[in-house]
Each structure stands twice: as structure tokens, then as C-alpha cells.
Amino acid sequence: MRLVTRFAPSPTGLLHLGHAFSALTVFRAAQEADGRFLLRIEDIDRTRCKPEFEEAIYEDLAWLGLDWETPVRRQSDHFGDYEAALNALREKGLVYRCFKTRKEILDEIARAPHLSAERPEGPAYVGAALPAQEERALIDDGAPFAWRLSIEAAKQYLGPAYGALSFTEETPDGVRTVKATPEIFGDPVIARKDNGTSYHLASVHDDALQSVTHVIRGEDLYSAAHLHRLLQALFDYPEPVYRHHRLLTDETGRRLAKRDKAATLQALRESGAKAEDILARLGFEAS
User: Glutamyl/glutaminyl-tRNA synthetase class Ib catalytic domain: which residues (predicted)?
Assistant: First the structure.
């Protein structure tokens, strides 16, 4: 089986050294395996994603010496695909409308801690669908809502297979099998109020659509693999191999982020930095 992997940035700002490290890690993995390297633009956030940032992604990656297959999949061109995926979950009775605001959910969890499940990102909400009449009244009033995946419904749908869910993680020390525990997310939002989808739904859908065999990304997304493995099982998608790499940090140990404008690739290039210098700084040899 030929390795297929992808780098999937969101054009919400300029790329920085951390993005460069991730992109190069993915690109070199594809090169070393004589595999395929895909670039995917994850721009479902229609408020924060900007065309100028997307153009900068192409410029920065080309400057670093990366090339990729075309056409590039831009998620904002495929909202219909994600709507169809959501409808498939609806038909199976696996999702429910959630009309609560974030503040209402946090207040409810504070009053009744049993409604939450602990996860790396903080407490996760576990709820239920409203009575049909109450839900219809809210819809008729135009109340916004998100779609949440019911973990309990997913457990019932998969039966014993739920408890057997696992994913394969490649590490510098070898390959290991990790038991998937998607319940750490509570009932996750699968389709947001503002755009009708989510990172989790769109990413899992596209990885299957694009025949991605290896998901190589930062360790900050390690916990997401637990939920993604569940979604793959619910959709009967192939299971990719995962590899979560270390994150770059600054001198204080803080993770590099888009807010650190001085560390953007554009700023470094404009200051006279050479691509080969960036590669060496990140631990890669020029190809």
C-alpha cells in the first residue's frame, strides 16, 4: 500500500516556523516512502479564513521547496459533502440539535458536574435532544443550534465494536496500538452553528475521500485521534495510521502560534533569511 499523507493548514494567519516544521515532516515522510503528498486548505471558518492567507501558504511552502498534487482541495468548496455526511449521522439517529450557548453549557456543568467528561481541553458536555415540540418551537423562532454527536447513541450503534476501537500510532520508539476513548469529548459538536460542519467531521471525511493512509500532524491534535477513530467506524471509513510529532516552542518553552508575527515565514523571508537556513534550523537537510 502506497503511503498517502497531507498537510492541512487553515488560512487564518501567516505560517510560522512551527507550520514549516510540520509541513516538512509530512513532506519528507512522503518522499522517504515514495508516497504521495497532498496539500489541503481547511478553511471552514468563514470569518477568520482569508484569501490572502491562503495565497501566503502556497508562497511559503513553495519557498521551502515543497511541491504537491493539484488541484488542492479547499474545504469551503465542499460544504455540500459535509452536509451529506451529517445527514448520514442524522439518519442513524446519532446526532441531536443543541440550542445551548457556550455560557449556558458551562453554567449547567458547574451546577451538575455529572454532565461533563474530563478531557485535555477541559470539561465536555453530555446532553440530549429536546422534546420534539420544544425543539420545533425553537426552530420556528429561528434559534441557532449546533449538531452534537451522542456518544451514548454511538455506543449502542456500534455495540461491542465500540469497546474494541483503537488506532495505530507511530512513534520514534516504534508502533503501538492505542485504545480509543472518544468519550473524553463528551458529546462533541459535529456541525457548528455558523457553518454546518466542524474540523472533526470535515477532516475525517476528507482523509477518507483522499485515501490518506497516514495522518501526520502535531501532538496537540493527539486527543482528536480518539474521536476521529469513532467517526471512521460510524462511517465505515478506512483506518489511517497516525503519527503525532513534537511541537516547536520559543525560548520560554511556549508553543509557537500565529500571534507570534516575528516568527512568520513571510517575515523571515523578508528579513533576508534563506530557505536552506530555515531547513537547517528545523533539522532538515536541503533536498
Answer: 3-279
69 assigned to some structural domain: yes
Q: What is the dihedral of CA 86, 88, 92, 97, to 10 degrees?
A: 20
Query: Per the domain annotation, does 233 fall within a domain?
Result: no
Specify the CATH number for the domain of residue 102: 3.90.800.10
Look up the pTM and report it: 0.92
Helix (H) / strand (E) element for 248: namely: none
Strand order, beta sheet including 214-218: 174-179, 166-171, 241-245, 214-218
Q: Does residue 112 share a domain with residue 25?
A: no
| pLDDT of 247 over the 70 cut | yes
Give the pLDDT of residue 149.
Answer: 98
Q: Give the cell for residue 226.
A: 480518539
Tell whether 33 and 56 lie within a shared domain. yes
Q: Is 11:44 a contact under the CB 8 Å cutoff?
A: no
Residue 280, domain member (yes or no):
yes
Q: What is the dihedral of CA 213, 219, 222, 224, to 10 degrees?
A: -90
**Domain shared by 99 and 65, yes or no:** no
pLDDT digits (tens, 9 = 90+) for 191-241: 999 999 999 999 999 999 999 999 999 999 999 999 999 999 999 999 999
